Amino acid sequence: MTGIDYVAGRPGIGARLTNRLLRAMRAKTPLDVTDPAALIAARHKLDRVDAGMARLRRRSSLPFTARDTQIAGVATKELAITAPVAPCRDGAVLLFVHGGGFFFRSIHGHMLLAARIAREAGIARVVLPLYRLAPEDVYPAAQDDCLAVYDALLADGMEAGDIVVAADSAGAALALGMLLRARDRGLPLPRAVALLSPMTDLTYSGEAIDENAERDPMFGGHPMPAPGYYLGGASAADPDCSPLFADLHGLPPLLVQAGSTERLRDDGIRLVATATAAGVPIRVEIWPEMPHVFQAYDFREARQARGRIAAFLRDASFSLETGG
Q: Which residue spans adopt a coiled-coil conformation according to this UniProt entry (predicted)?
């Protein structure tokens, strides 16, 4: 089944508590994205929070081991998945393009999210490009780094059919841009792509931007930040920056998941028309009242969503019934 699936049901207590926590956190002073120093300072603060969470997680067993590597001159994190749930596909790799508004990483959180998906999908290796960040490096630096890593995996002898891609938030714009450039260079493309709460339209023209202006647990209550600190001199409407406006022909099947109250909800919904016009199979799942990148949490709906992503990455199909 392709198209849009509005998942039935009400959010459980774990999701509701997470939404409350996010709303409490967003009540703080909004970030001034016009000030490069403020962006960098915010990144350092978020990195400290992320590192603190990583120390707490180390008290329990993690589903991966990690090492720092370089691929094609780009710093990467490579994960070896321990005890995959599904049978492993020999040589398979998950290329995970992290989000973070183009200016920060939350790398430990993203490693855990990627590892959980890979573990259920039966993928023993995960590669996360640590692409260059804005405002120090503007478009197309981050996209260049992601493409360099993908190109190097192929040059190292990997079959494109053994590669799957997952990306969250701003990472989705980078991942789709990377694949469009790979296509235009004649490179073979991966088997499947999963997009979690994707950002695909940097012009913020979706109706949900206003409709969910107060309902979004993470981004509500404040104006959406203009992404000029990432774009440099590029236009937000450029299809190379906003893949919603691009010709997606030739791309592999796409699975998109987003929450109904997200301000970026329509960045996923409107991708159906773009993909369908290009003959690309796509399924968009809208989950009720889920926060941005809800798959990163550990409440019931997050686990169900990760399971669906893993099944899709294994089979590159939409044959399973949606979890409620």
A: none
| 292 in catalytic set | yes
Output the pTM of the full model: 0.95
**pLDDT tens, position by position, 37-74:** 989 998 999 899 888 888 877 656 788 999 999 999 99
- For CA atoms 9, 14, 20, 24, the dihedral sign is negative
Q: What is the CATH number of domain 3-315?
A: 3.40.50.1820
Q: Which residue has the tokens 């079959």?
A: 159
262 among known catalytic residues: yes
Report how far residue 223's alpha carbon sits from residue 209's, in angstroms, rounded to the nearest whole number.
9
Annotated active-site residue in 120, 262, 285, 289 = 262
Domain spans, the chain: 3-315
